[in-house]
Amino acid sequence: MAALPRLVCASSVVLVVWAGFCSAVCVEVPSETEAVQGKHMKLLCISCMKREEVTASTVVEWFYRPEGGKDEPIYEYRKTNHEFPSRFSGRLQWNGSKDMQDVSITVLNVTLNDSGIYTCNITREFEFEIHRPLFTSSRLIHLTVVEEAGEDFTSVISEIMMYILLVFLTLWLLIEMVYCYRKVSKAEEAAQENATDYLAIPSENKENCAVPVEE
After folding, report:
1. pLDDT in tens, 90-99
2. N or C: which end of the chain has fewer CB within 10 A?
3. Residues ≥6 apart with Cβ < 8 Å to 23
4. Torsion region of 38: left, alpha or beta (phi above 0 gives left; psi -120 to 50 gives alpha)
5. CA 177 to chain centroid
6. 22 in helix, strand or coil?
7. CA torsion, points 26, 30, 36, 37, in degrees to nearest 10?
8. CA pair distance 73, 187, nearest whole angstrom
9. Cβ atoms of 138 and 121 closer than 8 Å
10. DSSP conformational letter for 203
11. Contact 103, 96 (CB under 8 A)
């Protein structure tokens, strides 16, 4: 029984940290704007739903506009995936999520001619009992294709910050566990001392003796 309070305290700390990592949150992150020739490039398009419990039908339209040109449809999702005939024929791949909050596509085997402006249009029709409102949103991606990848200092800094954060969270978890352990140990020692003092009192005086117990 003495180990039970320690286990409960440590488990509570672990659960708090684990819940912080595992809680699913939709974040509208912008897409990368530089691709490398011959590599695959994911065109990120995220449109979060404020009320995920409401059923909605989603239509996604992707357009491409070269420098000095006009928008041309290249991909569409309307219950099923459809790729339009274009310079990207056979090189587009759906990369969205089941809940239709991530409606990204991937361009396979990127070429230098793929530089330009990509537009992601999202149309949602929410299925309420009384009415069916429409909501639209759009994302623009100015993509530049380079022959070789350069040093990305931003990604290096992001990795360093990620490792620092992991180290900080690990140390914080250890400190919390040590704190809980010492707190429970002190409470047990105080309870044992009170019990010892109580047993040392003559039996005829125990009826009038109240042993204080620390919380």
Report:
1. 999 999 988 8
2. C
3. none
4. left
5. 26
6. helix
7. 90
8. 70
9. yes
10. G
11. yes
Question: For all residues of the chain together, what is the average pLDDT?
Answer: 81
What is the widest separation between alpha-carbon atoms in the chain? 102
Find, among 153, 99, 113, 118, the residue nearest to 42 by Cα.
Answer: 118
Q: Give every CB contact of residue 151 below 8 A, 6+ residues apart in sequence.
A: none
For the chain, which residues score pLDDT lower than 70? 1-24, 51-54, 150-153, 197-215
Collapsing DSSP to helix, strand or coil, 130 comes out as coil
186 is written with which tokens? 């002190």
- Give residue 64's identity as a one-letter amino acid code: Y
Give the pLDDT score at 154: 72
Tally of residues, the chain: 215
Residue 81 CA to residue 71 CA, distance in Å, equals 19
E-state strands within the chain: 34-36, 41-43, 56-65, 72-78, 81-83, 92-94, 105-107, 116-126, 134-146
Measured distance CA(135)–CA(126) in Å, rounded: 8
Task: Map tokens 């001619």 to a residue.
Answer: 113
Phi and psi, residue 90, nearest 5° = 80, 0
Sheet holding 41-43, edge to edge: 41-43, 105-107, 92-94
